Amino acid sequence: MEDWKRELKKQYEEIPVPGEARKRIEEGIQMAKEEKKRKNGAVIWLKRAGETAVAAVAAITVLVNVSPTAAQAMEQIPVIGSIAQVVTFRTYEDHSGRGEANVEIPQIEGEGQAPAANRDMEEYADSLIEAYESEIRASEGQGNYSLDSTYDVVFENDKYVCIRINTTVTMASGTQFVKIFTADKATGQTVSLMELVGNDEAMLTAISDNIKEQMREQMAADENVIYFLDSDMPDEDFKGLDGDESFYFSENGELIITFGEYEVAPGYMGAVEFVIPETVTGNLAG
Fold this sequence. Notes:
- The chain is α+β, with helices and mostly antiparallel strands and 286 residues long.
- Helix content is 41%, strand content 24%.
- Strand 3 and strand 4 (160-170) form a beta hairpin.
- It is flat and about 50 Å long.
- Residues 11-25 and 31-76 have low confidence and may be disordered.
């Protein structure tokens, strides 16, 4: 088994993808992750909305602070509402030279204010587009490069709506990225895994341990299943969750953790996910 792991790791590291191109894509993904971590999404939106919007929101803030009645009314305004409609906000397409791109950018439409999660999803899509355009400029029409990004609503209940972004970047080989935005319907904010578990490090560790247990069980049952765990290259092994991983819920409300291609397994296994039983997490879906 160790030989299998070592050989597949070697094959992965030798994939003939231009280093600069892969670096740009990974930087784009990282930029999106860092943006999502910003907890004051409303402030980010306001900075870009212009002086008129800032003045209007400032006036509302004053009203809320001086009037308990107004504050109570504001609390009752639904940001998304019980039913969220997810639509394609815009589509980016490019078919020039040897580059080809198709990026669908989703938006949540609800009963009240525009949710901050929309801004998070748009910024993520923009980072993918920026990386694509940078690579096209750098390659000067040489080689083939494609970007395909689509979305699906993978879960919704009265509390959350989860939108999965599936992105495939193809250069010398293809790489699949998975990003899931889970929006809290009451606030409109994107919820991180760490926020979902209440910043409970012990809970995050318990989920990590369950994932490692599932990895070991799968590898023991099938020699063709390999994860970066318990290998002779421990520095490359899966250490545990950091609280920024993508997640959604099953129909039964179980937590599902997702990983993109190459994150925790060789590329041939594609994007992988793990269903965490409620005996580990309790009821997180609400």
